[in-house]
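We emphasize that the prediction below concerns an isolated chain of 175 residues; any contacts that depend on oligomerization or on bound cofactors are therefore not represented. The input was used exactly as deposited, without trimming of termini.
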Amino acid sequence: DYTWNKADVCLPKLVPNEFDELLRLIKEGWSKRIVKGAFFVNKVVIKDLPTYKARLKYELGVLKSMGFEGYFILVERLVRWSKENGVRVGCGRGSIGGSLVAFLLNITDIDPIRFGLIFERFINPSRQDLPDADLDFMSSKRHKVIDHIYNEYGEENVAGISNFNTLGLASALRD
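Result of the prediction step, given as a token string:
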């Protein structure tokens, strides 16, 4: 007999106080993306600031209560390293587009307030599931990102996840 037990979320501790580090990164992003405006994003009109502040406060509360601050720091570091080293990164695909924190950290280029996207599609406070940032790296330099992760965190701490699909008859003939 075997009983399946879901393991607790396990993330590396990247800095002594992850919440303070996340706040520091968010303040930088707020200055660049909200105050100065960003590529693809119109400068936020002052009357909208209370909406942004309320949403940011809510998201930070959820992240802190669930212990996901380190996850965002990790993803931000990976995206920043990639962009600084000539590896293009997609604008943010899937439910992560609903996160204002991800937008402020330059993980995504999608302003969730402007487009009415929902944070709970990415992180649902009622479920203790680790978020899943769908990051797309340019295929010709993807190996550089993987090598960097191995070098930064140790090969024994990094795993690749394969995704297998099947083709139905019509799809196989079309492909």
